[in-house]
């Protein structure tokens, strides 16, 4: 790993006798880009379970400012989508517009963070809505987190540990359609557009985050030998041509190979 890159990495098997398979500065808090959108999904799922929200409730994107980059809704004709569809877009393509619409419906970023605190989630923080540009008055990063925090959250979702099973299952379902397999998950060789069913003996649920000088991948991998929860965060200052990015992706793929071996893929 390059000395110019800051890392936070944690991967562990789940079950009665968990075994750490990779760890590097697991408690270092780094920018995590879109990864903390998982908190938005958790808050939305909890709201549905508490009957404060409806899964078929129409949400209108015109309530929030337009935002570009990742996502599909900005390219679609419909101004309104059911809440469940907006959450699916966040899970599948990290949709920025759908994220902001959900945050607006949930009552703002503070309301999302309050749900995380109520659930006892540590080491994962959403600081702001998604913006096309960050000004001095805005939080410097959309989110921050630690590898231990993200991996622990993924393991809690898998085991419904302190999270109601219906809430956890709904979030996992939204994430299962995720299409970004460019980082840790690149080692698994799965179909990025269809990996909800086991392939090569493995099933994957993950969430990624990407920004300038930031790559994050966290997930759950199930295989014949068991389940692994992992999180890998990398942060660096890009230089000309950004060669660090290639080194980061290669290191993440190496972690993926370790995860694959641990689950029997």
UniProtKB/TrEMBL annotation:
<keyword id="KW-0378">Hydrolase</keyword>
<dbReference type="Pfam" id="PF13354">
    <property type="entry name" value="Beta-lactamase2"/>
</dbReference>
<dbReference type="GO" id="GO:0016787">
    <property type="term" value="F:hydrolase activity"/>
</dbReference>
<dbReference type="InterPro" id="IPR045155">
    <property type="entry name" value="Beta-lactam_cat"/>
</dbReference>
<dbReference type="InterPro" id="IPR000871">
    <property type="entry name" value="Beta-lactam_class-A"/>
</dbReference>
<feature type="domain" description="Beta-lactamase class A catalytic">
    <location>
        <begin position="9"/>
        <end position="226"/>
    </location>
</feature>
<dbReference type="InterPro" id="IPR012338">
    <property type="entry name" value="Beta-lactam/transpept-like"/>
</dbReference>
<protein>
    <submittedName>
        <fullName>Serine hydrolase</fullName>
    </submittedName>
</protein>
